[in-house]
Here is the input.
Amino acid sequence: MTCALSLEAITCRFPGRGGVAHVAVQDATVTVADGEFVSLVGPTGCGKSTLLNAAAGLRRPDAGRVTVFGQDLQGRNPHAGYLFQGESLLPWRSARENVMFGLQLRGTDMREAAGKAEAWLRRVGLAGHGDKYPHELSGGMRKRVALAQTLVVDPRILLMDEPFSALDVQTRSLMENELLALWQQDRKSVLFVTHDLEEAIALSDRVVVLGAGPASRPVGEFGIDLPRPRDVSEVRLTPRFLDLHRSIWETLRSEVMKAHATEVHG
Amino acid sequence: MSRAWLALAQFGLLVAFFAAWYVLTKTEVLPPFFFGEPLVVLDRVREWFVTGSIYPHLGITLLETLLAFAIGTLAGLGFGLWLGLSEFAARLLDPYIKGFNAMPRVILAPIFAVWFGLGVLSKVLLGVTLVFFIVFFSVFHGVREVNPVVLDNARMLGASRRQLLRHVYLPSATAWVFASLHSAVGMAFVGAVIGEYLGSAKGVGYLILQAEGVFDINSVFAGVLVLTVFALLLDKLVTVAERRLLRWRPGGAGALQS
Ligand SMILES: Nc1ncnc2c1ncn2[C@@H]1O[C@H](COP(=O)(O)OP(=O)(O)OP(=O)(O)O)[C@@H](O)[C@H]1O
Ligand SMILES: [Mg+2]
Here is the structure.
């Protein structure tokens, strides 16, 4: 199987205090096959966003290799759409103009771009909100606009950084189902970061557990053989889901404890 | 308090000021020779506009002000963006910019008069030196405050360097420009009037200078009054443009304005 995205032996350092570099991730290898949905879970601060930035080409790893569809990544990853952890919409553009942005950058005809944007706003349940500016939308609505903004340019790889963690429980499972439905249509390759293990299992084909930082790397990989299509809230109640959850949690818990210990004791 | 009440109260304050001025000078608590008489001042303004004698002067002053304002703003915006984006240029020019900004630039007026003559040009340039730095610093800091996530997002959506400038830095800087434009309007007037005051044959500053020469304090105040009214009008125009262009701002337009 071809790899859509492969991070091989990635090391990322940040300049730390007193000239001592902080090694966020070391020798981390993560791959996403074409059409595969992979989740990356791990304790907070273990380097999930850092790895995603390396995959996006926004941050050059200090060592290791990033390849995209078999080719070495130079600069920004042209095949990837990125849904950021923080607020990423352009505040001076209305929801519709935000969704149109990527098409506009590619020189798409404005009328066509507006049509596509409108269709995407409808798909994420925001028909009729196109003229609102980001500050006039709720946090959940902004995340939907960001999702539409990322998907309208039809990237082959989707990088998502805790996209739903700021949402309330209902909106969240709604969005998770929407995401799965969209993904089911054209099977993009997805690297999905979350610290919520249940979310990871419910969505993914494979869950990668990242160890506690510093110098973290994957400590376990678990194939998720739950049948598709799935409904995220129903699948959580199946015995197989609980089995998977138990065995992955076993690995994850010790990492979370380690992370907690370093945070508390130095 | 409703807007109408606020406007009424503001107008009341103005009337109270003129009334106090009137009473104090009428009773000669303040000598009218030095402090003028409000009724005469207002009459002088009326006379200027009725006879039309003020128009050539006012026209010149407004022309100088608007040119200084426009050129200074555009230059400040351009340089602010450039230095905000170029780490090297910013470091290189840093001491010079600080120096120019710290320099009391009104001192340049007579020098500009020698270099560029007594016409419009020297006044415009003086105004530009004043306006430029206000806008420049505002944009320069604004560029560095651009949300890095928004920038990364635009990059991932495929924005080239030029597209980043046009679609991210420029709109983001616009907010900062407007925050500075209100002070810039006043400075453009200062440049024009000081320039006229120090050497010219036309303009409201020149009119004030003439009146001072013959101790006609009422005309001096009339000139100041006319300038103030026009500065307020220009400021109003800035506010209107701001409302239109910064509709997207959470706090509404003018949220940055102190
Ligand atoms: N710009 C930076 N400068 C210095 N250190 C950084 C920087 N960005 C991240 N780090 C450090 O690198 C480590 C990994 O950060 P990262 O943001 O990748 O974590 P994360 O797994 O995404 O955490 P979270 O789940 O809280 O989002 C952290 O210890 C953090 O302190
Ligand atoms: Mg993160």
